Amino acid sequence: MNKFLVSTILLTVGPLLLIAQTTVHGRVVDRETREPLEFAVVRDRAGGSALTDHEGRFRLPVRGRGDSLEVSYVGYAVLCVCAGQCCDDPACCRDGVCGRGMELMLGRRSVDLGAVTIVPSPNASFHTISQADLSLRPVNSAQDLMRLVPGLFLGQHQGGGLAEHIFYRGFDADHGTDVNVSVDGMPVNLVSHIHGQGFADLHFLIPELVSKYDYGKGPYYAGYGDFTTAGYVGFRTFDVLDRSEVKLEGGPFNTGRVLAKIKADRGYLAGEAVYSDGPFEWAQHMRRFNLFGKYNFKLSSRTRLTATFSGFESRWRSSGEIPERAVEDGVIGRFGYIDSAQGGNTGRESVILRLRTEMRSGWLLENQAWYAHYYFGLHYDPTFFADDSINGDQLRQRERRDLAGYAGRLTRHDYFSGGGDLLSAVGIGAQDNWFGLSDLSHTVRQDVVLDTLQSGKPREYALNAWADENYHFGRWLVNAGARLDWLHFGYRDIVGSAQPGRAKAIVSPKLNLSYTHSRSLQVYLKMGKGFHSNDARVVVANRGLDVLPAAYGMDLGVNWKPAPRLIVNAVVWTLYLQQEFVYDADEGTMEPGGRTRRQGVDLSARYQLTPWLFANLDINYCRARGLDAVKGQDYLPLAVPLSSTGGLDFRLRNGISGGLSYRYMKDRPANADNSLVAQGYFVTDLTANYIRSKWEVGLEVQNLLDTRWREAQFETTSRMRGERQAVDGISYTPGMPLFGKVKFGVFF
Fold it and tell me: Which of 120, 250, 306, 358 is the most buried (most CB within 10 A)?
């Protein structure tokens, strides 16, 4: 009886197990460009799902050769294909398309949030939001690209040529100290920069070349190390273009832009020229030139080499930050200036080589190397006559460096016969920075040096290794990873005495869990350790104390589709830092700020009201405090307590599109006791476009309601000519008034 029962079970279940072990695989790409589509969702009728990797590849166990697959991606038409040679779904097989081992091409169409499903992935929900935003919301600059990240705000205070000031998750991240920024895998943040640690100048990126961007909040990602305390933002450019284009833009304040994109068989070349005087009485004369190119070599059926080069140079004049009292007392107008000798110039040339090899063993090997040459010069004067009542306090910063790096990554996806799958990734990396010049001087009439405050040659190089495992079984996904960073800091001081170099290693474990209850509900928990960035000059001067203070974070969140076309991401989070540093650009030093804790709530929602009308909303709350200060004097200066962005976007079938959006930032403390307040703002923007097959016209209106707002604000002790003593107060750069710009483009 027992033998008969066992035999019956084997005969009944055995074929089913064999069917369950049938695996289909393929690659999902864009129909026009053949670019791989990462995070495309592949589902079978039984509810099984898989996500494509960054090469567009997927593997999915299905019930058998008669099954069908549904492939979806934000901004593309849903594709239904057969899993084997034949399937029993006539709708899928009418074109004879087979999903086993084939390249599946998705055609672009209007965004349909109803086709989006929640799948087990540590970051897929962020990708869905980013892809929808990039598809719907027009971007006209690299700054617009950064503003697509929910909760991230920017401020410009030096004439449009300086890297923007970043505010993110309760951090006044200066120009990038706490936010990791990269383009095509190449780091943008510059270590030990003369104007601020992690200086991330993104102006070399032409916005029309960005195919996708990725972001993450907190220190939870094994592949990201230095600067990843608040999070990371990574941009990817097209490998190939679907068409060539020439575009002209123009508006008030002598603003103009010319863009050219030239498509080639295996790559493209693009260039950009920008000029603007801005709304200021002292015209900015801001001019920038960009050149960007990419070429793809197919070395074999399994190996591809991509070469990317870019170069840009920029020059500008600046009114800088003006004292609040100077405007209120009528000394100058809101767009006036006190020191007309401010401004700067900068440039960057870089080359990236990326080699991708699909190994027969199932591993994907990626090797990437980059080299860049960078220079920077800035004259600025925020204090005027506070320190030198005769000559003034004008400062000059100069820097020149070369940097090179390497990143290697090995990934593999394994599937188990009993169910579940494992995505494994390991990586190593290195980066070196050689400085030819790094100095800070007290000057008059720009280049007459009165005193050299700091002059030397930092030397910083780093090594890293990391491992990341994603185990998916049933409705659970466990992501465990660890990262090892080793950094060496050196500084040869030309002004003072030489100091020995310092080195430090730190291990950062990560653990992320998610439970996907259904295609419309997922709960996740992220936990991880990172570290706060540091400057080589500070490390050497402090003799290696507090080199890499640890950062500990945790996120508890939910991804939810309460309605077919409504996507909601909500999270409660906390982040603790062992030591925070405050950079003083005037002195060229970074001061310890003690232990800090940030706690907050983030909410993002994307809603498709009709087939052509979309709404977006982001709300971010944060409480940021120092833990070593007495209550009432524990505010973290410029930490944003409440911010929000949102708007409506429309896309009609006749080619008309556009949107109305807003940015809101609440008043925030400008100093530790909140006695000085940086004013908040509410600014609205409007866009409208009409696109045909061969041409497009468009309109962009910034600050539609002509709001008087302040783009950048700081606590500054300054003294104007004629004042008896220095005054501690708010200095700011006024925000753009009502401004309209038109564009006309031709495709070919």
Answer: 120
